Amino acid sequence: MTTTLHRILALATLFLVAAADESPTRDPYLDYKPAFASSLPVQILLTGIVLTLVAVLFIHLIFTAQYHWPLAPVNYVLQISGVTTLLISLIATLHVVLSATLDESKNWPYMLSYIAVDVPPSDSSMSEDHGKEWTTAEKATWMVMNASTSGLIQITHIQFLTLLYPSRLEGRLIFLLLGESRSGAKRRLLTVHILQAPWQYYPL
To answer: Which UniProt keywords apply (predicted)?
Structure first.
């Protein structure tokens, strides 16, 4: 009787071990986990890097004002405006992210989430434990700030290109993008250079 019981227990143990080996060891919920690029550490790291670079650019513009302003005052004003608005936007973004993580760490389980903070927060991501929902005025102000930053940066780029035109390099790029033939592009480039400095081609 005892031997039979031992055999049954041994068979049951082997069956349980085999079943445990065949069971999946991977957590199925990992399939729904967002990518690491959308995580909170990456969000804070990238925002901090961009903030540092923009701060260095702002300091550079301040110290080179005496040389930059006499050469191109409009370009200098646009660059200062674009960098200032971008710096304010990055500081506000970092403040929102860190404030949300601080509020989250004050509640159970006193840890931080893996997922990055939505800026501005969406309705689905807000709860009583993760701060309050933004008002319409706050969201509108945030959108206006982002639109102003993007607009100033693009205007600065366009204005800087107008300072270069009609240089030889930019002229070739424009004609290449327009799809003109090489002979037609050469004729147009020659026309541009003649208009720029006619005394080089038609001396008095």
So the answer is: Membrane, Signal, Transmembrane, Transmembrane helix
Tokens of 131: 């701060």
Q: What are 39's strand-pairing partners?
A: 115
Q: Residue 156 and residue 137: Cα distance in Å, rounded?
A: 28
Question: Which residues, including other chains, have CB under 8 Å from residue 125's CB and lie 6 or more apart?
Answer: 118
For residue 142, give the nearest of 120, 161, 123, 162 by alpha carbon: 120
Q: Give per-residue pLDDT as tens, 149-176.
A: 999 998 888 888 777 666 677 667 766 7
Q: Give the span between the Cα atoms of 126 and 118, in whole angstroms.
A: 9
What contacts 68, CB < 8 A, 6 or more positions away?
Answer: 61, 75, 76, 79
Q: Are 87 and 37 in contact (CB under 8 A)?
A: no
> For the chain, what is the largest distance between any 2 Cα atoms, rounded to a whole number of angstroms?
126
**DSSP string for 81-136:** HHHHHHHHHHHHHHHHHHHHHHHHHTSTT----SBPPPSSPPGGG--TTS-PPPPH
Instruction: Evaluate whether 91 touches 51 at the Cβ level (below 8 Å).
Output: yes
Residues of the chain under the 50 pLDDT cut: 5, 21-23, 128-129, 198-199, 201-202, 204
